[in-house]
Amino acid sequence: MAVVAAATNEELDKSSKTVPKYFQVPQQGLNKDSIWNYFLKEVADGKTAKCMDTSCQKVLKTAGGSTSGLNTHLRSIHHIDLLKKDLNPSELGVKAKSVKPISDFFEKKTKSLEETLARMTAKDGIPFSVFSTSTDLRRALKSDGFTDLPKSAHTIKKIVIGYSQKIKSTENEHVLDLKRIGRKFSVTFDEWSSIKNRRYMNVILHGKPQEFWNLGLIRIHGSLPAEKCLEMVANKLRLLNLSLENDIVCIITDGSSVMTKIGRLSPTYQQLCFAHGIQLGVLDVLYKKINQTPEADESENENLDNLAPCEDDSCCDSDSDSEEIDEDEDEDLVISHTLRPVIDKVRTIVRMFRRSPLKNEILQTYIKQEFGKELSLILDCKTRWNSLVAMLERFYTVQASIKKALVDVRSDAHLKDWELARISDIVDALKPIEATIEALCRRDANLLTADTALNFMIQKLDMQQSGLALELGVALRTRIEERRTELSGLFKYLHTGQYINSEQDEIFSIPKPTKICSLIRNIICRLRGMNDDASELQEGETNIIEKPGPSQVKKFKSDLTTELNKAISAALSSSPLHKVQPEKSLTTTIKKEMKLFEDGDSDRDEEAVTFPQHPTSTNNLQNAHVSPSLTPRLKTSVYKTKIAAV
Q1: Where are the domains of the chain?
Q2: What percent of the chain has pLDDT over 90?
Q3: Does the structure show a pLDDT above 60 at 190?
Q4: Alpha-carbon torsion 551, 556, 559, 560, what sign?
Q5: Cβ–Cβ under 8 Å, residues 623 and 164
Q6: pLDDT above 90 for 233
Q7: CA distance 643 to 646
Q8: CB-based contacts of 121: which residues, under 8 Å, 6+ apart?
Q9: Is 42 left (phi over 0), alpha (psi -120 to 50) or beta?
Q10: Which helix (H) or strand (E) segment is 42 a member of?
């Protein structure tokens, strides 16, 4: 019996040693795509694995951590093939590596075919027929992704017109949205004649600075008196649900007799074009009409857009519409008799070198020795003073080379020293005027920058000692006085908060405080439909103290454009900002606002009064803009009044 018991105990010990323990592998055991989801691993040394299927329970070796036997068992016995399964990285919890498509390495096309065609026809001036006839253009558009480019010019025209209607609808909605929030606008309009001798009226609506909408051309049939012109503009605005009485602050026109009458009939303010005024002032001095009539000064159709100098004798034979129209009107203009001898001699020399390749080659040899490059002589257009500046400036620059070339070609056309000095005087007098016109025609121009540019021009002319500069200064002052309104003074006052009258030209002065107060009140009452019960201000009634501001005399540098830009930037420096406080009456509100605007904010917290009837303030009126110039290329800004609710 003892022997049997010992044998039994030995057998139990052996069985306890031979039965290993197994466990489920963490994490891997919960993954259905893992081999350990189907097997348990030995606890002791992990050299074996046990199938989890209760009907199988087979123990397999995993020597060295190899699981190939386990996969073979699953595939052959249980028909589960984990090795051939198409594993999805997202199902396995592994983040797939992002690979950029090839299209990401190229600039994506953001423009539609309609927008591209409209831009190329309107901005680049490409005719519709070129899109159907030009192989290179079609290939370029096709490479840009526009494979459905029509082959018919008529179809392309329909696409462009349809896109323009879509843009107009969007812009009209934008204008209506601005009106709903209380925005005000200004209008620029002018008459234009095509090469077919058809007359049109172009109307442009202006919002805040550098924001405008071209409302299109209006065909003119028959005569165009002031009443008819104003009615045409009003009808065009009515399409946008705008009215001259309530939505338009100012109209900007040229200074012809019809336009000045329109200004008297219109319920809005009127600003005459400064650029046209300068043009007329220069013509008053440099040119004269052979058969001058009393109405001659009223004509303001001179072309201001063609600032590029003419390079040959065919300058005046341009195919552009404006050149065709102006040709007949300016053909009776001739250079003044005091300047004509010198200018005619310069034109003779320029023509001689331009018409002879041999003589021009001799001239260019000397020019290259002096300047290191070729500089061609420029021939002016006889009725364009800006081209006269370019011709004389180039001639005076290369005068030394011209003298040498004239000796080599044995020409008798020599200029004396006093004639060269005369040329220098003409260039020095006209260059500031040219720079001023370019500043006036900028899209970001307003009445403040216009005053700065015009004052810069007058100061430059006054600093010169030549008789021509003095004559131009007198003529330009006259033209500026005809066009500068009290709006310019109001704009300057709202920007600076001071009466800058010391050391300033009279034509650029700010109106008296009573006039400024009355002007602000009239603008608010007209645009808001309000009636001020306070009596009209009388001289000496206001308590506003007139204080002279700092001097604005500038130091001048050689580069006129750089100097003028610096002067404009200085004028547009930050203006004082003030809080808004209501008062009982609109007139007293304006008076109080003006007083605090000049003195600062120190008095604003001392008093708080109610303002029951007039929910307006003049403080945001300093955001107003009026365009100082009028050109067909839309180089204008706008006068805009913005009244903020208290």
Answers
A1: 17-92, 113-177, 306-315+334-431, 447-623
A2: 29
A3: yes
A4: positive
A5: no
A6: yes
A7: 9
A8: 127, 128, 160
A9: beta
A10: strand 39-42
Question: Which structure tokens are listed for 7?
Answer: 């044998």
- Residues 6 or more apart from 153 whose CB is under 8 A from it? 127, 128, 129, 131, 132
User: 608 is written with which tokens?
Assistant: 């708080």
pLDDT in tens, 291-340: 544 444 444 444 444 444 444 444 444 334 333 333 334 556 677 778 88
Residue type, 361: E
Q: What is the three-state SS of 165-176?
A: HHHHHHHHHHHH
Q: Which of 49-63, 430-444, 499-513, 582-596 is the most confident on average?
A: 430-444
Distance from C-alpha of 608 to C-alpha of 611, rounded to nearest angstrom: 10
The amino acid present at 251, given as its one-letter code, is I
pLDDT, position 499:
66
The per-residue pLDDT for 501 is 57
To the question of pTM greater than 0.90 for the whole model, the response is no
The residue with tokens 């591209």 is 116
Q: Tokens for 98, please give them.
A: 């992002």
Nearest to 60, CA basis, from 78, 48, 73, 46: 48
Residue 404: partners with Cβ closer than 8 Å, 6 or more residues away: 366
Number of H helices, E strands in the chain: 22, 11
Q: How far apart are CA 639 and CA 527, in angstroms?
A: 14
DSSP state letter for 548: B
| Angle, alpha carbons 502-506-508 (nearest 5°) | 85
Question: pLDDT at position 309, please?
Answer: 46
Interhelix angle 417-440/274-286, rounded to 10 degrees, is: 160
User: Are the beta carbons of 271 and 250 closer than 8 angstroms?
Assistant: yes
State both tokens at 493: 């006052």
- Cβ neighbors of 76 (< 8 A, separation 6 or more) are none
- Beta-carbon contacts of residue 349 (< 8 Å; ≥ 6 apart): 377, 395, 402, 406, 411, 413, 415
CB 253 within 8 A of CB 270: yes
In sequence order, what are the residues at sequence separation of 6 or more whose Cβ sits closer than 8 angstroms to the Cβ of residue 19? none
